Amino acid sequence: MSSNLQQCDSVDISFEEFARRVYPFLEFTRFHSVYYSVLEAYARGRVRKMIVSVPPQHGKSVGATTLLPAYMLGLDPDMRIAIASYSGTLASKFNRRVQRIIESREYEEIFPETTIKRGTKPAGYIRTSDEVEIIGHKGELLSVGREGSLTGNRVDCFILDDLYKDAMEAQSPIIRQNCWEWYTSVVRTRMHNLSRELVVFTRWHEEDLIGQLMQTERVRELKRFSDIDELQSDEWLYLNFEAIKVSPATEIDPRSEGEALWPEQQSVELLQAKRRLDPQRFEAMYQGHPSSREGYLYGNNFRCYDLLPRDIVMRASYTDTADMGDDYLCSMAYAIDTDGVIYITDVVYSREPMEHTERLVAAMFEANDTRRAYVESNNGGRGFARALQRMVPRVEVEWFHQSGNKEARILSNSATVLHTVRMPVDWHVRWPELYSHITTYKRLFRANRHDDAADVLTGIVEREVTPSSSGRWQRARFI
User: Fold this and answer.
1) Could you give the CA distance from residue 131 to residue 161 in angstroms, rounded to a whole number?
2) First-to-last CA distance in the chain?
3) Cα–Cα distances in Å, from 431 out to 304, 332, 394, 417, 465?
4) CA-based diameter of the chain, in Å?
């Protein structure tokens, strides 16, 4: 691969500035500036292997598959770039868009040495919607559909964008396997020591190409810009943009929890409405956290209620305080009828500081006429319990230490949870994040990012249904 950048001032132009000049109609937000900065690191060879997961309709392809190839051919007109997508038609569409940029007057002013339009072309010059050569240089731009051939072509840079057409394709084990075999037999065999790869698409399934690469190769998650310089030659750089921020803030993505990625185009309200329609698919496509429905522990199998029965015999709550910075405080208020059925009536599910969640939980006790409260004393729970007792003195608050194995407890009590617990009919609307985390909770324990809600549901049934099998929690004291 040639490393001779054009010897002119245009080499110093940033990718974002380039994009603004050739596409002046683009809307740039903080997210887009970060996205384009990371893509520029790739364009300039600081990153050889990169995975980027972006929600739908957030400018993913415009940046990575339309503007980026044009920019890279401007920096190095001897580069051979291949664009791959789920169909040859879509890949050719990307190719034509790149050609139109290179033909533009704005592009010629920035990169005058990279051209595909001249009155007299060299003999044998190729220019189609699938392949175009840079005049006077070795560079070319190829496009290919998934499972298409690149026989004889050496490739310096592969850009793989949306290798699955839709959810139906991504859910097919046969298509996923065919995609993987095409990647290993076509993409990898056309690469050399200095070749680069960019995989950028919306997630559909945990075993899609991104998922398989993350299982088989070394991957470093991009949290700060210095990670780029610390990247090893055999590592992939991985960046996931969540549509609604739920992970801890980083230098790359400093948003606060609950903030939308591009609120001017897709507000939190719109995104939450999409989440309610299909939480599992939303987690995959918009949050970048796919999971297989076949592997869910609970799934969407909870029975729901509209109104509480009259014969309620107890009103209580169970609280698990946050263990670490990424964990949630989960507190569930519930009612029990004469048949022992447990009705979840209210929830506090938050990563806010304890001084804030204490007030939320206390208010929940008042609103739900809670009479007894169980609080796990692990990791600050004892202090939390004492604060609750001061704020709501009429409630019997009991703290206890939970020493039972969490994985064993959750898995062994899952059937009891589904059989005994009832959720409000609108719980997906009232507590969308909780709903998503519970219904997508996986049987493979280590595959879950959050177990706080599952732990609380387990604790409730251990207390109210199967106290003899409730692990080794030490029945402590009322405050």
Assistant:
1) 17
2) 71
3) 14, 11, 27, 18, 25
4) 91
- Measured CA to CA, the distance from residue 72 to residue 9 in angstroms comes to 15
**Is the distance from CB of 34 to CB of 252 less than 8 angstroms?**
yes
Mean pLDDT for all residues in the chain: 88
d(CA 333, CA 373): 9
Q: What DSSP element (H or E) covers 433? A: helix 432-439
Residue 78: name the closest of 154, 130, 186 by CA.
154
Instruction: For residue 53, give the H/E element and its range.
Output: strand 49-53
Q: Which domains does the chain have, with CATH numbers?
A: 9-285 (3.40.50.300), 303-478 (3.30.420.240)
Task: Please say whether the beta carbons of 317 and 373 come within 8 A.
Answer: yes
Structure confidence at residue 379 as a pLDDT band (50, 70, 90):
low
Helix, strand, coil content of the chain in percent (nearest 5): 40, 20, 40
Kindly tell me the burial class for residue 219, based on how many C-beta atoms sit within 10 Å of its own C-beta (0-12, 13-18, 19 or more): middle
Give CA–CA dist 226/223, Å, rounded. 9
- Contact in structure between 298 and 461 (CB atoms under 8 Å): no
Burial class (CB in 10 A: 0-12, 13-18, 19+), 476: middle
Distance (Å, whole) CA 75 – CA 3: 9
Sequence-ordered list of residues with C-beta below 8 angstroms from that of 403, at least 6 positions apart, any chain: 471, 472, 473, 474
Sheet hosting strand 396-401, strand order edge to edge = 303-305, 421-424, 342-350, 329-337, 312-320, 372-376, 396-401, 474-478
- Residue 475 confidence (pLDDT) above 90: no
Residue 227 half-sphere exposure toward CB, CA atoms < 13 A: 18
CA dist 383 → 96, 386, 390 (Å): 63, 5, 11
* Sequence-distant (≥ 6) Cβ neighbours of residue 421 within 8 angstroms: 302, 342, 343, 344, 457, 460, 461
Q: Which residues is 337 bridged to in the sheet?
A: 312
Section 251-275 average pLDDT:
92
